[in-house]
Amino acid sequence: MRIKFIIWTAFAAIFWLGVNAQTGENSPKQKLVRGLNAYELGRYAIAYQELTSARNNRKNLGEADREVLDYYYCLTSFELGKSDAVEKVENFRNDYPKSVYLTSLDWIYANIKFNQKDFNKAVELFRGIDVNKLSNDEQQEFYFKKGYSLINIDGLVDVDFRTGRIIDAPHMMEAGNDLKKVTVNSKFYSSSVYYLAYIDYFRGDLDQAQARFTQLTNDKAYGSIVPFYL
Description:
Shape: elongated
Number of helices: 12
């Protein structure tokens, strides 16, 4: 994963500097090194404790170290489900607008907003992400979640097709373009096919909708739903 590589590169660099720096065991530098080490081992509570302690004396760290510290502070907050994780990401974006870690944090932030069903903000963040910096699996997730978010912004998910209600759907084409990029070997493929059929149905392209819904006839997640549309 490319983002994981960026994280590991930051960890390796700061660890080397920490080992070679003439600092005490309880210095901010050493706390940062211990925090990063704990994070890599999946000990997020310990990492958060060390990083929080390091941040209390952040004035004794160099600019690069402070950036890494704040980055991992955001990551551990996300891993631990801290209620202020989003606020921390916002602060990082404001403090380091040109950071190489922004793609990673924007991806995390966009997923937080997606899970919170704040689809307008999620789309704003997704649009700002350089998808080429994501891993292949993350790219597949990106295209599905962005497409699904756009559908929700237009309100199509809430449409009752039997009423024939006409609504404005300016994001439908963009949503369709994203969903079409999800490949057959992705875990998001069936969901993407379903929502592409959903868009076809909404637009009145019933032949295409039928073809896509038919693909899902035996699907575990959607097999019981598609007969209604067919």
